[in-house]
Amino acid sequence: MAPARGPTASSLDRYRKKRDFAVTPEPGPSTAQHAAAPSLAFVVQKHWASRLHYDFRLELDGVLMSWAVPKGPCYDPKEKRMAIHVEDHPVDYSGFEGTIPRKQYGAGTVIVWDRGTWAPVGDPKAGMTAGKLVFRLHGEKLAGIWELVRIAKPGDKQEAWLLFKKRDEWARPLAEYDVIKALPDSVTAKPLGSVEEREPRVSNSRDEPQAGIDLSLAVDAPLPAKLEPQRATLASTLPSGDDWITEAKLDGYRMLARVENGRARLFTSSGHDWTKKLATLAAEVEKLRLASGWLDGEIVMLKEGLPSFGALQEAIGGRGNEAIVYFLFDAPYLNGKDLRSVPLWARRAVLAGLVDEAGERIRFSQDFAAPAAQVFEAAASLGLEGLMLKRRDAPYESARTQSWLKAKCRLRQELVICGFTARGGRDGEIGSLLLGYYERGKLHGAGSVGTGWDACTARELWTRLAPLEVDSKPYDVGEPKASRWSRRAAGSERWVRPELVAEVEFAEWTTEGVVRQASFKGLRTDKPARRVVREGGEAVTAAPISKVKVTHPDRVVDRASGVTKIDLVRYYESVAAWILPHLRDRPIAMVRAPTGINGELFFQKHAERTGMPGLTAHDRKLWPGHPALLTIDTAEALLAAAQMNAVEFHTWNSTVRRLGKPDRVVFDLDPGEGVKWGQIQEAAVLVHVLLQELGLEAWLKTSGGKGLHVVVPLAPRLDYEAVKAFSRAFVRHLAKTIPERFSPTSGPGNRIGKVYVDYLRNGMAQTTVAAFSARARPGMGVSIPISWDALPDLKGGAQWTVQTAREYLSFQKQDPWAQYWTTGHSLAAAIKRLK
């Protein structure tokens, strides 16, 4: 047994004396003895105190030796990062995340940026004494050999060291990869798994054995009457090594085929017989050279070569049924042989031979020889749902297993429909669906979804749900706070028996247990509601890798801040997941700065200028008489635009799908000469209060410049003329009611000492800078969404910049705009009240 180890009473004296443990949430020191762990822990904590820095900690002799590293670690051996040796910390501190209160030592917010184990190279105690500590890290972000070298001289007030990467297989130039900017978030909130498993520095060949197919574990057995399918576990990281088979995760319905005496029957994963529904597909299965067996696969509809879940639903309903394709990926039973104990690679090899001569509707689900990380990146860029990863030697088990994993580019799962709201408060069309899931037999609320269907589908959903209506909520457990409706919407919910299941795609599960940025994909008729459970986890996120070559990376974009072109591209790369929901499907206007923001600037709204890979140019018929409109719908397009010197991104108030019907109204609070920041904050509160009195909830963001933006989400029913008329009436009413605070006209001379609330952005083809966009102004401020509760502490409209915004976001636990995406107000009542 390893000897016990613990800190000496004096080793944590400095730590203890600096802190008041009745006030700070930091763990107190302990001299308790702990059994020696098999490995030594390390942690890097990101600490936003008086200034941002990184606390680098290595466990040794029962304490965490600690260094404050202002710039954080870097994989480039040429980068020697200053590291100030500070007091030892308790081992328990390695898991600390939270806020140290004001007036306490180290006041500020702490997150766990990286964690793992470390192994010293040589004697670590001797290394500390000599001032040269060499070690290997095994973390979620950091790996390879590193070195700490003491450079402090006797008498120095601070004990300065240097932290740097040693040259090995993990070393990378800073110009190629900046781990601080690429992976800024907490590994507690977003676990990544071991970087050595995620990005192995070894060959990852997946070639099948050439010596033949090993079926030695096959067993003679009668054909089972029923077969429960093997199910995959949701993964948050990608496994590595050559013992995994990687397939595309197909966006369809799981389907098993049972063949007996040459006749095929098709069953869903829940055991429902769909043979009659898919009679022509069953006939195709019967053409295989198979007397008896069970085949496992997925049925899909292909549109332009890619699976389409919506098209599959229509086909199952009878429209285009004969175009459904059955992708087979496993064969647990074939021709009197039970193959469930046979390794997966061998089962698939037999299946591939069986399907080889099948028609176009029966296909083999191919696997990919490339490393999983590369395949995942390609799948994400193609818009696929994700990957399936299966151990090569795994048996077939009728259960959810760890030998089958599913890695999703974007989270997606079934959720129970528990209620609905009517569109516009009128019967006939669904406005939103209220969702839930089962846990230990109890139904929990999971938030709502209000997008993803057209008017026809909204009517069909109404027809399906109205007969199921009940008087009370079906939830066994109370709804989470984040799913509760605004005061105006309260009472508009209508509840149903929890019998129908919706397929929903979403960005993440919030800390309150609701889906964020959800989109409806369709009803699932192949799965009973009682079997719907929360899968949890997160969409897999590979480390961001620029898909564009950045030319002139060192060109200074802003002289005031020193921001370079590569800084700007990396910023947009790091916030792609945040900004894309605000850009996607909206006509765009970009401010481009070919020589930097101090040079000539110009707007680009159409495709007639230099082309950018990935941007979507829409049919001119969309807006007759005008050049083609552009949209930025992918991270690739965003980075291509940044590479072509686009600094600002402005968007229409409508999407290309409903170009003439805005789905938001924006009020830009623009200060006149002599207006102080406190007056702008007060103006925002007054605008918010008046909107609430009109029954409208609003969301707030900084402009990235001098002011603030107040945004009201709308149901896209009225045209631009009507929405602009409302915004004009609102501003005039505001200025008439409080003339000493607001000006209704835009001229500089008309708003000295007042705030002008700009309504002109609500006209056709007018744009507003998107949330998370940088501004082409000295300092390069960024437009950032905030909560109304955060307004009093805001210091200005450009409080966050290209250099600080992403770091700020890494400390945020909740999305202040989470409910924005599922809210769509009608202006009818508000317009009447303003008249």
From TrEMBL:
Residues 326-439 form the ATP-dependent DNA ligase family profile domain. GO terms for molecular function: ATP binding; DNA binding; DNA ligase (ATP) activity; DNA-directed DNA polymerase activity; exonuclease activity; metal ion binding. GO terms for biological process: DNA recombination; DNA repair. Residues 1-34 are annotated as: Disordered. Its EC number is 6.5.1.1. Pfam families: DNA_ligase_A_C, DNA_ligase_A_M, LigD_N, LigD_Prim-Pol. The keyword Transcription regulation does not apply. The keyword Ligase applies. Its cofactor is Mn(2+). InterPro entries: DNA_ligase_ATP-dep_C, DNA_ligase_ATP-dep_cent, LigD_ligase_dom, LigD_PE_domain, LigD_pol_dom, NA-bd_OB-fold, NHEJ_ligase_prk, NHEJ_LigD. It catalyses: ATP + (deoxyribonucleotide)n-3'-hydroxyl + 5'-phospho-(deoxyribonucleotide)m = (deoxyribonucleotide)n+m + AMP + diphosphate. It is an enzyme of class 6 (ligase). Keywords: ATP-binding, DNA damage, DNA recombination, DNA repair, DNA-binding, DNA-directed DNA polymerase, Exonuclease, Hydrolase, Ligase, Manganese, Metal-binding, Multifunctional enzyme, Nuclease, Nucleotide-binding, Nucleotidyltransferase, Plasmid, Transferase. NCBIfam families: LigD_PE_dom (TIGR02777), ligD_pol (TIGR02778), NHEJ_ligase_lig (TIGR02779), NHEJ_ligase_prk (TIGR02776), PRK05972.1 (NF004628). This is DNA ligase (ATP). It comes from Paraburkholderia acidisoli.
